[in-house]
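User: These chains co-purify. Model them together.
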Amino acid sequence: MSDYLQQALTGLGSGAVIAVLAIGLVLTFRASNVINLAHGAMGMYTAYVYFGLRNFDLAGADRGGDLVLPIIGLPTSVHIVDRPTVVTALLISLVVATMLGLVVYGFVFRPLRAAPPLARIVASLGVFLYLQSVMQLRVTADGGGAAALQLTSLLPDGVVHLGNATIPTASFVLAGLAIAVAVGLALVFRFTRFGLATRAAAEHEKGAVLTGLSPDRLGYLNWAIASVLAGLAVIAIAGMSSKLDPIDTSLLVVPALAAALLGGLNGFAATTIAGLAIGMSQSVLSTFQARALWLPDFLPKGSLREALPVILILVAITVRGSHLPTRESIIETRLPASPTPHRVFLWAGILTAAAAVGLLTLDAQWRLAIVVSTIATLIALSSVVLTGYVGQISLAQYAFAGLAAFVTARLAVDGLGFPWAPMLGVAVAVGVGILVGIPAVRVRGMALAIATLGAAVAIEALVFASPTFFGITGVPRPYLFGIDLGFLSTGAENFRAAFGLFALGVLAVSMIAVANLRRSPTGLRWLAVRSNERAAAAAGIDVSNTKLLAFAVSSLLSGLGGALLAYESPALSPQQFLVIGALAILALTYLGGIATLSGALLAGVLASGGIVTRLQGGATGDASSYQFAISGLVLVVVAILYPDGISIALRRGVSRWRRA
Amino acid sequence: MTALLEVAGLRVIFGALAAVDDVSFSVPNGGIMGLIGPNGAGKTTTIDALCGFLPNAVGSIRLDGVALDGLRAHQRAQAGLGRTFQAVELFDDLSVRENLLVAAIRPRWWSPFVDAVAPRRGTRGVNVDDALGLMDLDDLADARPTELSHGQRQLVGVARALAGRPRLVLLDEPAAGLDPAETALLGRLLASLPAAGVSVLLVDHDMNLMLEVCNEITVLDFGRVIASGPTAAVRADPAVIAAYLGGES
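Assistant: Joint model of the two components:
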């Protein structure tokens, strides 16, 4: 028992970090009504700045003091000072964090203040994707050296004895600091004009104007504070756990979201308590899972701890949500246009034929690129249905694809024959898709994006890392009516056209079915629900069922993509299905036009390793990282300039040109 | 005339405020019942409660003898209760005809499978021309809601409510923002609804319209019914004149 106490108190440390991150989320939410999914990524960057500056060996000749730059095109880092002390390095990092907060607000979220939630979420995904992939490049490429940073802790490394329990002093110090931050901010918000005005602005922008402070200045201030807090929190946790990584560290935003949601996105005390409690329960759960040998082997190590915040998120938003939005919460939102698809058979025929000719005439690398694009189009199509047609922002589409892929591969390796293994895999994806959709029926907009992000992280932690699915190789070749549909072979024969043609066929049928649904009464109901849930219900539409149907159709599509991936990849790895991939696919689809079939096609063509990558002469790891970084950037720009996506902007341009 | 809609003891509480407090009234079959009252009297809240948008509303609501309590919004719509909104709230992504189609078509569980293969089959044989005709919108069937005037949008809103073949439509300020000519047209069109088998519960501030088309009027003030009865009697009621009509005449 006493070691559970020990675990709980040790968890105060990470709980404090979660709490401080969550407080930053609350600040930015109140200032500009956006749940900043890039919050963890911003802290991650600041932490790299700090540890980069301090990256020198006291005995060695290296001088440290290199400031990592997060901008593509500029050098990886600039040298600013030799061997900075902890204080100097910390001060510089916090100045950088302040600037980062100001830049992100000024260039991204200030212009989007009145934009629809989808545009704001996409923009925050853009920032996330950008920071995350730029840092991935900086860390791994050209010996920037960040991979080998020494992560020294700023905190005392002693221990405290409490009965039999031994607890790191740092945990208590951090918890104390987090509480101090919360109390300090609470006082500032209670007693200063800045605090009052921010609270007024959260209610109504005009309220802030009445207090005599411009909402702009409030926004800048809150974003700067939030960014600094995020930086401090990540520096602390990285030093304490000796772990800093562009992807994993950015995903610290998930437990922080859980704490912020439990605190009702308001109120520092509740948020802090929630954060500390999450940290403590995670710590206890790790020990519990390591002990509880009766738990099935299927569960990967440490998965319960990852799954906990997600469950909390789902519960929090489900409890708070309601079936229909209230009269007061109706806001006129501009949705990406969704023109009725025309001449579907013609276009499907032309494109399929062109891709088929490519498969039959071009070399192996091209065949691979065409297949990659085909599968990516299928997965993007699932976002078109769910997010484009029905307005439900889901970040879990890639996780559904991954589920189908792993289940298909496992079953196939275990001896289930060809059409049956993928069919079961797809069925599992559809089942989980509907399951995720059930809480989604009660929430919308931002909250749904968070719920699905949480679901994706949970699927990643509970399933993809599971020993049952890890490192499956040698999926048997698929045969249909005696025809070998296998993809892999050797030499110039590799990446066989037969599989590509089969994948193309699946895509063509899916495209036509989606186009049919869009033009049919089902599609009309989807668009009606997207445009106004209250009016849809008043017109006799069962809004919950309509959404669940969309979840089912979209997880069917990404499941099909995933099942194809099981046969396409020589060895499946969880890395193929990370949340970051889902963000990239959603980003590309949004770019292409989230509510159009051409949006899915564009996303497929642009997908990493797909046709455009091939045109550029093939991708190394760097090139595809750049692709992520640039799509992050373009995503932000497009969200601001063309909320309808590029294909709609093009279409408008063409019709304007015709009229002129 | 028998009662089509019977409301008894309807109560909606927001925090400490009873927005609708023990409201009872009935709408006769084939009648046009007016619901009037000053701003904040609880008219829209009453409509929201009737069509299932306020889960915490209490009281008994019967449509043609069938209890609607506990049914969700879409189920009440399917049971024969149509409505419009103050802010019209058309589906701007859909054409006028499509706006009516989604209200007219009742899907079955297999509909999505049929729709994925034969997209046109679901709309075959579905009649929305009657509803368009009732609101004089035949020429605008293929227009986009965003291309219409405000008055036309109001009429499309009513037509969409009619497309679901309701027994009763709840119209929330359909004359708001209309010019006198448009209001007169609306009045004529509304007066024709009982003959088409649709009863009406009408909320509006335009007293000329109300006095002209309503057979009966119920007056709300601070969430309570202060008068109810045939239009002429309500018009002469001193309590009504004091609370509502007095300021205007």
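Chain B touches chain A at residues 44, 48, 51-53, 55, 72-74, 77-78, 82-83, 85, 87, 89-94, 98-99, 101-103, 105-107, 111-112, 114-123, 160-161, 163-164 (CB under 8 Å).
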